[in-house]
Write a structure and sequence with these properties.
This protein is an alpha/beta fold. The chain is 28% helix and 23% strand. The radius of gyration is 31 Å and the shape is elongated. The relative contact order is 0.10. The structure holds adenosine-5'-triphosphate (ATP) and magnesium ion. It is an enzyme of class 6 (ligase).
Amino acid sequence: MTTESVAAEAGRDFIRDIVQSDLDAKRLSAIVTRFPPEPNGYLHIGHAKSIALNFGIAQEFGGRCHLRFDDTNPTKEEQEYIDSIQADVHWLGYDWGKYLFYASDYFERLYDWAEGLIRAGLAYVDDQTQEEIRIARGTLTEPGKNSPFRDRPVEENLDLFRRMKAGEFPNGARVLRAKIDMAAGNINLRDPVLYRILHATHPRTGDKWSIYPSYDYAHGQSDAIEGITHSICTLEFEDHRPLYDWFLEKLPVPSTPHQYEFARLNLTYTLLSKRVLTQLVRDGHVAGWDDPRMPSIAGLKRRGVPPAAIREFVKRIGVAKANSVVDVGMLEFCIREELNRTSQRRMAVLRPLKVVIENYPEGQLEEIEAINHPDDPTAGTRRIAFGRELYIERDDFMENPPKKFFRLSPGTEVRLRYAYFIRCTGIIKDASGEVVELRCTYDPATKGGNAPDGRKVKATMHWLPAAQSKPAEIRVYNQLFSKPSPDAANFAADINPQSLEIWTDARIEAAVAESNSNEVIQFERQGYFVRDKDSTRDHPVFNRTIGLRDTFAKEVGGKG
Ligand code: ATP
Ligand code: MG
């Protein structure tokens, strides 16, 4: 075990240690954190890590956690995303109470502070193009060059900035920049852009603004306005911290948050970037943000993944300061563990093969009692009809079995779960030679699945009654990408062509078909399944949440 995972088991990590010591030393009386998504896409499982960290710390230390939308880029942001983010945070089990905020609530104050920077000689309007600014910024090894507009008089800067605000200039004509140091070793300090001109309608402020603050300018100040004590973000913002601290020093902010950086979640076979996820949706590689193959919270939910499994996963991976990649098998393990405990058992046949029990009286039916959960007697039992015509799984029969095949083949005997022993006595094929029906006999003395003479069978198979089961469509999902580290720049090439398999002729227990429940169930020997929203009354559709065992390495060929 790594140090992080040992700490994670104990529910500790370096950020919680910092919070604890701040409280112990009485540096702070209350803990305030926030989760600050930009509403430009749906949340994914990486965000769940940040949500669990921020809301979790607030819960554990008696503080509060704000939900703040960082809505500073109206060209990419939409109300649909704002709504989905709120729904997903709630679904994960967290609540911001009355602490719902938007960076756009602070536009007025941020603007006033920017004028203050201009008056203090700490900001200027630059007329260079975006490209000129980029080139003059220099590189890691070369200093940048001062803009020819850097020493504009304060009055001219104020006048131009006000006219930018009034909408006098077209997009991109000018920007407001902080006046820090074009030779700074940290590129973020080379006169960063504070405001850009953007004639765009904002989901909340409409057409009021023609200029919008940069993320770097808005983010830290929003934290300061809200009194955030621990501003927790991912490692890529570590180099931005000196800039955020510069703002806190120069502006009349009401509080001075401290920023702490942690490693973002990376998962094998998965891309966690909103840019990529947006493109997967836009280009039709998936059916939408909630496609069950997506690592989005909406996709995981539709797939049947319980929020408790996500919380457990996030707890197990812990919080570290160094980037790493987590095996997606760890997430799958947490899903299986939770579902094994909570899911009722039922039977389904994905690829039905008809079986006729020749010695079972025609027209007769009996009820077989089946248990709903092997480890939980309180889950009770149910009854399944057993008669002359049944379905078994096509894969459970082989006409010419290899040595280690213990399921049904000509002459062999197997147990039908909860019911009887059956023996295969004949095969019926269609014109093309495909097996379409089996003829079997059953042993009436083996009712319940045991032989009074003590004879054993090597396989127990699931089955369903032919007429008393219902048809269903079953969707089996595999990894969306076929490589452990898909290439974010060229992700389409790494998409797994077998990421979705659809079984249109599946059969399920009648009661499952008729139920509207959204609870995940285990179809015995198949995995965990949940009813999909595409279901209609006559056409139930089930998603496989996950298989029973890790067959993934075999399916895609790769992993380990
Ligand atoms: P992306 O890089 O996918 O576009 P983002 O970081 O720009 O995502 P935001 O909406 O800004 O998306 O993210 C909100 C919060 O979630 C931020 O604090 C960010 O650090 C955190 N976050 C985003 N991705 C991850 C991840 N993979 N692991 C942990 N935290 C993450
Ligand atoms: Mg971001």
